[in-house]
Amino acid sequence: MIQYVSNKGGGEKVDFETAILNGFASDGGLYVPTELPKISLSQLASWKGKSYTEVAFEVLSLFIDRSVISSTELRQILRESFEPFYDKRLIPNHKIKSIDGFYVQELFHGPTLSFKDVAMGFLVNLFNFFLKRKGEKMTIIVATTGDTGPAAAHASIGKECLETWVLYPKELITEEQERQMTTIMAPNVHPVGVTNCPDGADDLDLLIAELFADTKFKNQLNLSSVNSINWGRVMMQTVHYFYGYLQTVDRVGEALNFAVPSGAFGNLCAGSLAREMGLPVGKFIVANNQNACLHRIFSQGIFLKKDIIACQASAIDILIPYNFWRYLYFATGQNSTKIKNWIAEFSKTGKVVFDKETHTKYSKGFLSIPITDAQTLGAINQVFQAENYLLDPHAAVAVAGGQHFRAKLAANTKTLCLATAHPCKFPDSIALALNTNKTELPSAAKHDSVEAAKLHCERGYTCDYKNMGIAIRHSMLAVSE
Questions:
Q1: Is residue 287 part of a domain?
Q2: Which one from 38, 48, 95, 116 is the annotated catalytic residue?
Q3: Is 77 a domain residue?
Q4: Are strands 31-33 and 302-304 parallel, antiparallel or unpaired?
Q5: Residue 130 CB: number of other CB atoms within 10 A?
Q6: How much is the pLDDT for 310?
């Protein structure tokens, strides 16, 4: 049986269902499989031409024992998860004609127009499936910098076994993203806008960690999380690397570069695991924004928290990339003692300087760069003027990062840039990039669902950062009674 353990080494081995429903391991660590499955090139070649859901079934089956979820049940969960997508291809590729060898993987055709829909819809359906089978209910909580929250809220609509709480820094996401949460009228979905967060969503992640550490509160609400710390999110995101590879390469076996807009490292953690499983990756381009938390890690070997900078690519305004610890566990040969010590050091001092050997190991195959707002807006303008194709700010960060490193990429290799959100969610940025006003944006900068949400009533909770620990406990307990 496939089992899961904490990357910090504490607690017992658990099965897939327990790892998903618990979210965090009992010692506060992140769940990881005891070993990663391997995929041969012939196996990978046999998947070429399959649909996204078919590839997902093949990959996920390597992580989920049939005794936990049968083949029929897994296929049904996948069908339900992707049924709401607007584009029935689910995840199409777009060739950028004006940049030789560059492609865009459009991950934003889900119900909230973000790549978070891909893994979140599946994970929430997984939660509901397990809970219905157990005859239990659960409260899940998630923090967001913009796209995770809407995806979790939408996926939870009507799920009878779930109460879902979504926390977001009220001043630091777009109105379009906020309304995707606050216009949901489902009684089991509770958006909470937190004002005056000095470190953005990182403050909310700390609150969630405190709630999980409060054993009485956690047990009282049967609390779990669908943030990117949940293994189910990372596992599901490995699929779009395999699928994107198969869509883009001419021959299975050739290397493909991936340029990824990066903040919390959840998506890139998934990519790195796909590489460990056997995916032929050339280079991963870690396209950070000006917060540069990941760029410091890969270029200098320093894990450090600094003051947050509000950037055009706001969903990656991240200071503490928690999923890096999950990747580092595998990069260091599954050394949980080292992971535990580094996490403790960071918790105590706010900084970790990795030794040269560790830095060399985890940096292999990665190129990192912080992209400025000017470069982000410039990439949007460049591609739109050249071929009337509109990037959102996060895809623009990936494209700009990929272009920066073209000379360092192997000759004749292709680069797949991950587009993680629809441009309609960032009208102010698009207007700036195209040197126009919001009333004259091109049709590609709009979407019917977002326009409709502007006309709907809003509902939700608000609280101040100073009081949020007390406030959120009060509201969550009141709803659970």
A1: yes
A2: 116
A3: no
A4: unpaired
A5: 19
A6: 87
Does residue 363 sit within a domain? yes
Looking at residue 410, the DSSP 8-state letter turns out to be P
8 is catalytic: no
Which secondary-structure segment (H or E) carries 375? helix 373-387
Task: Give the DSSP letter of residue 17.
Answer: H
For residue range 206-230, list pLDDT tens digits in order: 888 888 889 899 999 999 988 888 9
Domain count, the chain: 1
Domain containing residue 253: 93-113+232-450
Rounded distance between C-alpha atoms, residue 59 and residue 61, angstroms: 5
**DSSP β-ladder status, 31-33 and 4-6:** antiparallel
- Residue 285 falls inside a structural domain: yes
Give per-residue pLDDT as tens, 117-165.
999 999 999 999 999 999 999 999 998 877 889 999 999 999 999 999 9
Q: Detail the DSSP E strand segments found in 77-137.
A: 93-95, 102-106
Do the beta carbons of residue 314 and residue 173 sit within 8 Å? yes
**Residues 402, 257: contact at Cβ < 8 Å?**
yes
Tokens representing residue 91 in the block: 């995840």
CA distances from 152 to 3, 18, 156, 320 (A): 26, 20, 6, 21
Instruction: Give long-range contacts, CB 8 A cutoff, 24+ apart: 176-180.
Output: 176/424, 176/425, 176/426, 176/427, 176/450, 176/453, 177/146, 177/147, 177/149, 177/150, 177/425, 179/450, 179/453, 179/454, 179/456, 179/458, 180/112, 180/149, 180/150, 180/153, 180/154, 180/450, 180/453
For residue range 249-260, list pLDDT tens digits in order: 999 999 999 999
Domain holding 318: CATH number? 3.40.50.1100
CA distance 38 to 28: 28
CA distance 176 to 450: 7
Question: pTM for the complete prediction?
Answer: 0.93
